[in-house]
Amino acid sequence: MTTLTKQDTKIARSRSTTELRVAAGLLIAQGVLMEGLVVLGLIGLVAAGVLQQTVTENAKIFALPYLQDNLYLMMMMSGVFAVLRVIGGIALWRNRLWGLALSLINCAVTLVLMIFLLPAGIVDGVLSGGALVLILHGWLGRDNDGRPRLVSTTRQPLPASTAAADAPERASRRQRRTQG
């Protein structure tokens, strides 16, 4: 069994922090560039007096007609996602657990909704999926000693009383395996 040094532990924690910060950067960039700019575009269109019908007739943004027909509402909703994503990203960057939870929820919701938001949903899915993998690996990938976390560990021996009670059943299973 390999013994890890304090230096190995620091490197593992540093790697975890780096993964979480890269994920936070992806979320902030996605919130500002993909969703925040959409809200600014909506403000510009409304200020210029451009009707939603004019935009939907000239720009095919979504594959689903319902979303295309309600484009201005979708653009406003994008602002909500932008705010939540940026807040979650900043909190994650600052190593806040609630920021991690908010960011996980944002990523999961985006991955579920991306199929309805084609073609723009593809880029959303790539960014949110990448951030989700980084968050999960940074949070759950290694233990405090820097060793990879496993789904299950080696089986613990049964207490003597349980082992004795289960012996006939285990022998019967063993016999069936060798016969079949």
Secondary structure blueprint with pairings:
Layout: H1 6-47, H2 52-58, H3 65-69, H4 71-93, H5 97-113, H6 120-140, H7 160-179
Transmembrane segments: 20-51, 71-90, 97-116, 122-140
Keywords: Membrane, Transmembrane, Transmembrane helix
Protein name: DUF2127 domain-containing protein
Written account of the structure:
Keywords: Membrane, Transmembrane, Transmembrane helix. By secondary structure, the chain is mainly alpha-helical. It has one domain (11-153). 75% of the residues lie in helices and 0% in strands. The protein has 7 helices and no strands. It has helices spanning 6-47, 52-58, 65-69, 71-93, 97-113, 120-140, 160-179. Helix 1 (6-47) packs antiparallel against helix 6.
Query: How far apart, in Å, are the first and last alpha carbons?
Result: 37 Å
- Please give the largest β-sheet: none
The tally of beta strands, per DSSP, is: 0
Identify the overall geometry: elongated
Number of domains: 1
Protein name: DUF2127 domain-containing protein
Keywords: Membrane, Transmembrane, Transmembrane helix
Quick rundown:
By secondary structure, the protein is an all-alpha fold.
Quick tags:
180 residues, mainly alpha
